[in-house]
Give the backbone structure.
Amino acid sequence: MRAGRFIASLLLPGFLACCCGAHAQPAASTSSGQAYPNKSIRVIISDAAGGAGCDFIMRLIGAKFAERTGQGFIADNRPGASGQIGLQLLTQAPRDGYTIGCGRGGNMVIVPLAHKKVAYDSLKDFAPIAQLTSNFLALAVHPNVPAKTTKELIAHAKANPGKLSFGTNGEGDFLHFATELFRKEAGFTYLHVPFKSAVLPDLVGGRIDAAVNTFGGILPFAQAGRLRLLGIAREKRSPLYPDYPTLAETVPGYASGGWFGAIAPAGVRADVIALLNREMNAIMKMPDVIEKTTFLGLDTYTESPEYFARTIRDDIEKWGKLARDIGFKPQ
């Protein structure tokens, strides 16, 4: 089954509620006593339909939101330009709470660092609503690489400076930054092989030696013996996959992954943000939601808008420092 069809199958029972509004509870009320929402909410998603990130999570939440409030989400997919198109459109939306979006680390943090001209300011143009999920990366090598652990791979790279090839999605891409952070913290050099498309097929085919990539993408190949998964980029081992060590066990402090969260245009009333945060957090606690997100390798969150704002600021500082340290020049 293709990824898009599989993800759609996870959402199918609630899809109409998400996209058409639904039959359930009356509108909720904000702290000021105003009925909200009293119509469907447009959600600008800067990914194509069927993806496992923002599209998946916002459609999943939309179905549950409709059950709880009587109003669903209308998904407006606006992919392109590494997620810039959707976010730029969100900055132009009315500040009435009926247009929100989904931000991710890629288009809110990495894109502004990697490009000279970006039509939005991630800290000024958006109001964080709720951090919803995060994923994590993993380090994998082709089975021909003479390393069975992260420690052995680092030793091999140091013994062969600049020869071990790592594939990424391109200069200034998130996976490039994540690989650079690993290299910097571990103290080795490598041959960078940027791709304009998926990296893993070339890693499986042995045309590159290694990659820091999504755990969910690497796992099936590792389980089939076509890749060797050396470690995951989490602070702690995954409860679902405790046999996989963390990269931090060898390179202390190293962790890397993406996050996905609901955002609104700056200027939306605080009581509307608070209601949306409360409803989304309640949805993220639902057992079937946790089951579906966990199956896709996503961790869930039920924190405040301020928590999400700190996540964004901290990541801008973290990756901005890396960009300066490695001398990366925006394109």
Q: What stands out?
A: The CA atoms of residues 216 and 296 lie 7 Å apart. The first helix runs from residue 3 to 11. Residues 3-134+258-325 form a domain with the D-Maltodextrin-Binding Protein; domain 2 fold (CATH 3.40.190.150).
